[in-house]
Each structure stands twice: as structure tokens, then as C-alpha cells.
Amino acid sequence: MGWLTWIVLGLVAGIIAKFLMPGRDPGGFIITIVIGILGGVVGGWIGERLGYAGVTGFNLGSIIFAVIGAVLLLFVYRLLRGRA
User: What family does the database annotate (predicted)?
Assistant: First the structure.
């Protein structure tokens, strides 16, 4: 997958994760994209461990795994920021 696809997929995953877990988070738009991109990586890793293809491009399966990863990362981010 190209860098532009990762950024767009990350943006979509980050927005969906933010919609599923609303609240005020520091960092705004940029952190949402970063969490989404990293969520794609985490989601792809989880998908591969479960026997699926993981994140393979801009398709529904990839978005689902990226959103799962982004939600997990957003949860961890909030835990860490809450304790700082």
C-alpha cells in the first residue's frame, strides 16, 4: 500500500474510532490521523494473527481491522494521557 493510501485509510479509521469513542482528546486532527494510521498497523497485525489477510488496501476488511486497531490505540492513549 502506498503512503497516500495509508494516510487516507488512517484518516477514515481515526474518524470512525473517534465517532465510536467520543470525547475530548488533546492533539486534534493530527493525532486522530496518527492514531488511525497506527491503528491500521495494529489492526493488520491482529488480523494476521487471527488468520485473516489484515490490512491489504482500501477495502472494507482493511477498514474494519484498522478501526479495531485505532479504537484500541485510542483507549490506550486515553489511559496514558489520563495518568500523565
Answer: Belongs to the UPF0410 family.
